[in-house]
Amino acid sequence: MEKTIGIIGAGNMGQAILSGLLKTEDLTTNQLWVSDTDQDKLNRLKDQHQINTTIDNTVLISKCQIIILALKPYIIRPLIQEFAPQLSNKLIISIATGYTLNQATQDLGKQVKFCRAMPNTPALVGKGTSGLAPNKNISDEELSTILSIFNSFGQTIIVTEEVLNSAVTGLIGSGPALVYIIAEAMADAGVHQGLTRDQAMSAAIGVLAGSSQLLAESNLHPGQLKDMVCTPMGTTSELVRTAEKLGIRAAVNESIIAASKRSVEISKQS
């Protein structure tokens, strides 16, 4: 990759993106820039990774062809409007919820190359899932470059902005919280039945991680894998019967749909 990439915002997600890019073989540290308002944080990143850092967004924008805006929703539009003349000819990627492609066109002009992205927190350990919604000005080659950035810390799907606002935010963006609730509930049950807290949490994490990997690698439907564990009148059959009776499927389904609907509401309020 010949382009120089700048990340504005060195929070958790900005650093997750940086960690992925540092593992990319065709990028050198000299091609990476990070800006933030926290000079101490920038100093640590520079010492740790030998990348370019600056507290001045003007410097970063002038040095980079690709700009990743790893910012909170309430920060992004004022920043874009402040630096609009410098940003208008860049390839821009935003991970902020609510800032739309239409707003980018309004702020930066009809020619702007702008892509919305929704990564999730497992990106922090290189296992993220991201959704991308590029505008019509982004070429196939540029989209391939964006894909390589987000694939550096997980897997990526390309969707319309409408789907990004709803299903991607609900399932990909918010979905990890549901997994953490399930992990906590499993561990609580383990403690109730005699395990120590550490044993129960370790077991719950192992079950979730191992089951996810089996699901990914087996190419079998989740229902088939579930049936493989269930024996007639056995413990797992009773677990499944009780979970279904208590509405686990509906709870998961409705929770993700509710998050998706809330995301659409937020987008309309922007």
UniProtKB/TrEMBL annotation:
Localization of this protein: Cytoplasm
Catalysis performed (reactions): L-proline + NADP(+) = (S)-1-pyrroline-5-carboxylate + NADPH + 2 H(+); L-proline + NAD(+) = (S)-1-pyrroline-5-carboxylate + NADH + 2 H(+)
Binding site for NADPH: N57
Alphabetic keyword roster: Amino-acid biosynthesis, Cytoplasm, NADP, Oxidoreductase, Proline biosynthesis
Broad enzyme group: oxidoreductase
GO biological process, one term: L-proline biosynthetic process
An MF annotation (GO) of this entry: pyrroline-5-carboxylate reductase activity
InterPro entries reported for this sequence: 6-PGluconate_DH-like_C_sf, NAD(P)-bd_dom_sf, P5C_Rdtase_cat_N, P5CR_dimer, Pyrroline-COOH_reductase
Pathway(s) it belongs to: Amino-acid biosynthesis; L-proline biosynthesis; L-proline from L-glutamate 5-semialdehyde: step 1/1
GO CC, one annotated term: cytoplasm
Binding site for NADP(+): I8, G9, A10, G11, N12, M13, A70, L71, K72, P73
Enzyme Commission number: 1.5.1.2
Family, per entry: Belongs to the pyrroline-5-carboxylate reductase family.
Protein's job: Catalyzes the reduction of 1-pyrroline-5-carboxylate (PCA) to L-proline.
Descriptive protein name: Pyrroline-5-carboxylate reductase
Organism name: Aerococcus urinaehominis
Source organism phylogeny: Bacteria, Bacillati, Bacillota, Bacilli, Lactobacillales
